[in-house]
Amino acid sequence: MREVVIVGGGIVGLLSAFELTKREIPATVIDESEGGLASWAGGGILSPLYAWRYSDAMNRLTFDAMARYRGLFSELVGRCLEWSDLHQGGLWVHVDTKEMNTVKDWAGKWGVLSETLSGSDLLPSFPFSEGVFFPDLGNVRNPRLLKALRSYLASRGVSFIRDKVVSLLPRQKGAALETQNGLVLNAENVIVCAGVGSSKLLSMLGVSLPMFPVKGEMLLYHLTPGRVPSVMLTQSGYLIPRADGAVLVGSTLIRGDCTTYPTVSGRYQLEAVAANLLPELASRTPAHHWAGVRPGSEVDYPYIGAVPGCNGVFAAAGHYRNGLVSAPATAELLVQMMCGERPNIDPAPYSLSPGLRSRSSFFNR
Ligand SMILES: Cc1cc2nc3c(=O)[nH]c(=O)nc-3n(C[C@H](O)[C@H](O)[C@H](O)COP(=O)(O)OP(=O)(O)OC[C@H]3O[C@@H](n4cnc5c(N)ncnc54)[C@H](O)[C@@H]3O)c2cc1C
User: Fold this and answer.
1) CB 3.0-4.6 Å disulfide test: which of 17, 64, 139, 165 passes with 329?
2) CATH code at position 343
3) Cα-to-centroid distance, 112 and ligand 1 (Å)
4) For 193-335, where are the E strands, in sequence order?
5) Is 42 a pocket residue for ligand 1 (Cβ < 6 Å)?
6) Ligand 1 centre from 10 Cα, in Å?
7) For the chain, what is the domain count?
C-alpha cells in the first residue's frame, strides 16, 4: 500500500501509524496540536468506568486492547516511558448490592479476576465500603505513552505535520486535503481520527455522525508513592495513582463544550471530590489542573471502518471516555480493514454505515 495520511495525532492516530509501520507502510500524521484534544488529558484508566454497563461491542474492543498494552510497552519502554507507567495496581469500583450479581456475571463472561473488597481495606479512611477489586486492571500514564509513541514513530520514518486540515474532498481513490497553511495533498489512503474534530471532517465527505464534545477537567496532587494503591472509582469521581506518587482526581463532564481551558467551577467540583474520597487532600493544593475534550457519541462504542462512498478513506472516532483503553484494538482493527487482512474482531458493530452497524449478528450469537 502507498502512503497513508492520518488526520489526527491523538492516541488513535498515533497507534494507527504504529500499526502501519509494523506493516512497513509509510505514514504521515497531520495534527493542528500536539498530544490530542483528549488523549494527553485523559486519566488513562484501562477499563471503561463501570464496564458491565457497556455493550458487548465496547467490552470486546477494550479487552482486545488491554491484552495488547504489554506488547506495546515492550516496544516503547526506554523512550520516555518506563514499565511502571503501565500501573497494574488494580481497579477498585464502588458497587452497591443491587449491581453485584451483574458485576460477577460480567467478570465471569470476560474472564476478569475480581474479588469483593471494602474500599477502606485498600485505602484506610476511604468513605465507600461495598465494592469490587479487579487486581489485573489498572492505568497507563498517557502523556508519556504519547511522547514515547511519537519518538518511536519518528525513528521509523513517520512524518509529522503541524497544521489543521480545513478541507477534505473525496476523489476516485482517496481524498484531497487542504490545510490552514495552504498545503494541498492528494492522498490515496486517508485515516480520519481527529477526535471531536472528526464529525466536521467526515461531513465534508458526506457522512454525518452523531458526535459531540464533552469537556473534562482533572486535578493532580503530589502524595507519597503507594499512598493510593489502586484506581478508586465511585459514581462521584475517581482517584488514579501514578507510580511516582502523583494522584489524579477526575473528572467533570460538560456536554457541548469544546474549550480546553480549566475553570473555577471545575476546580471547586474536583476539590470537593478529592476531599470526599481522600480527606487529607482537603488541606492540600493541587499541583496541576487541566481540561480536555472527549469525542462523545450517541452510542457507547466508537465508529471504526471505511467511510461510505469514499474509496480508500477510513475513520476511527467517537471513543468518548474509553479512547485510551480501546485505542490499541481500534488501530489494529482499522489497519487490518484498510489492508484487506482478516480482522481479529468482527468490524460490523463499529461500521460507519448505519445499516451494517445495527445488523451485526456476531455479538448476538
Ligand atoms: C478528563 C478526561 C479523562 C479521560 N479519562 C480516560 C480514561 O481514564 N481512560 C480512557 O480510556 N479514556 C479516557 N478519556 C477519553 C480519551 O482520552 C479519549 O477517548 C481519547 O483520547 C480519544 O482519542 P482520539 O485520538 O480519538 O482523539 P484526540 O486525543 O482528541 O485526538 C484527535 C486529534 O485530532 C486533531 N484534530 C482535530 N481536528 C483536526 C483537523 N481539522 N486538522 C488536524 N488535526 C485535527 C486534534 O488536534 C487532536 O490532536 C478521558 C478524556 C478526558 C478529557
Assistant:
1) 64
2) 3.50.50.60
3) 27
4) 211-222, 231-234, 237-241, 246-250, 254-255, 288-297, 303-306, 313-317
5) yes
6) 6
7) 1
pLDDT in tens, the chain (365 residues): 789 999 999 999 999 999 999 999 999 999 999 766 899 999 999 999 999 999 999 999 999 998 899 999 999 999 989 999 998 789 999 999 999 999 999 999 999 999 999 999 999 989 999 999 999 999 999 999 999 999 999 999 999 999 999 999 999 999 999 999 999 999 999 999 999 999 999 999 999 988 999 999 999 999 999 999 999 999 999 999 999 999 999 999 999 999 999 999 999 999 999 999 999 999 999 999 999 999 998 889 999 999 999 999 999 999 999 999 999 999 999 999 999 999 999 999 999 987 655 544 444 32
Q: Would you say the CB of residue 312 lies under 6 angstroms from ligand 1?
A: no
Measure the CA–CA gap between 273 and 29, rounded to whole angstroms: 38
Atom of ligand 1 nearest to the CA of 39: 21
Give the Å distance between the CA of 40 and the centre of ligand 1.
Answer: 7
* Distance (Å) from CA 57 to ligand 1 centroid: 20
Residue 31 maps to a domain: yes
Return left, alpha or beta for 152; rule: phi > 0 is left, psi -120 to 50 is alpha, else beta.
Answer: alpha
296 pocket-lining for ligand 1 (C-beta < 6 Å): no
Q: Is residue 259 part of a domain?
A: no
Whose Cα sits closest to atom 19 in ligand 1? 323
28 within ligand 1 shell (Cβ under 6 A): no
For the Cβ of 318 lying below 6 angstroms from any atom of ligand 1, the answer is no
- Domain presence at residue 150: yes
Give me the domain span that covers residue 68.
Answer: 1-86+139-210+298-365
Minimum CA distance residue for ligand 1 atom 20: 323
| Helix and strand element counts for the chain (H, E) | 10, 20
Residue 245 placed within a domain: no
